[in-house]
Amino acid sequence: MTSRLVLLGPPGAGKGTQAARLSTQLGIPAISTGDIFRSNVAERTELGQRAQRYMDAGEYVPDEITNDMVRARLAQPDSAQGFLLDGYPRTLDQVAELDAMLAGLDARLDAVVELTADDEVVVQRLLGRAAEQGRADDTDVVIRRRLEVYHEQTAPLAEHYATRGLLRRVDGIGSVEEVTARVLAALNAS
Ligand code: ADP
To answer: If you measure from the C-alpha of residue 2 to the centroid of ligand 1, how many angstroms do you get, rounded to a whole number?
Structure first.
């Protein structure tokens, strides 16, 4: 079965960790817009230079930049058998854009998994990650801004996908293995 999946959830909910595990288990590529942006910043590409100032401030990169990048990625052959999108869509405009991209490929989404975690937990996790990995946007002020932007712009997507019958809510608090098992169970139940 092809699986075309979206992973939603606040920064620090564990999307990246779970995306990597689910990608292996389900045999589909995990596509993380945050990772693609970060590698472009590191390689100093034109895309990276356009995106960096937004990322450093905890703001979303403008939709037209992000949409073009995702469209190009979904056109690559490995996405034809399914994919797990991590960090996209993040705005209602991106939702519409993704639907259009998939319609162009004669495909549609199978499920949207929302990993839930309280703000206090995610702030502590991200501050811990800052100490370990030194990601440029893991400072206290920028973390709080990312959460604010998430609640304003991305949290409404869960309601949207719930209305379409695609949403599976999964508790993101627990061990990495437990959370993966919950996601797989939620997907199998659908
Ligand atoms: P997190 O979910 O922990 O905030 P990500 O690695 O997913 O981090 O994203 C890091 C940054 O990359 C975001 O704060 C934003 O600037 C940019 N970004 C990633 N995905 C998108 C998107 N779909 N739309 C706009 N900006 C994005």
So the answer is: 26
Question: What letter does residue 136 receive in the DSSP assignment?
Answer: T
What is the distance between the alpha carbons of residues 26 and 11, in angstroms, rounded to a whole number? Answer: 23
User: How many whole angstroms separate alpha carbon 58 and alpha carbon 55?
Assistant: 5
Residue nearest ligand 1's atom 4 by CA:
11
Give the C-alpha separation, 94 to 113, whole Å.
17
| Residue 15 bears catalytic tag | yes
The answer, yes or no, to whether any atom of ligand 1 lies below 6 A from the CB of 33, is yes
The catalytic residue among 21, 129, 144, 169 is 129
Rounded Cα gap, residues 172 and 163, in angstroms:
22
Q: Considering the entire predicted model, what is its pTM? A: 0.93
Sign for the CA dihedral angle at 91, 111, 137, 147 comes to positive
Quick: pLDDT tens for 86-137. Answer: 999 999 999 999 999 999 999 999 999 999 999 999 999 999 988 898 888 9
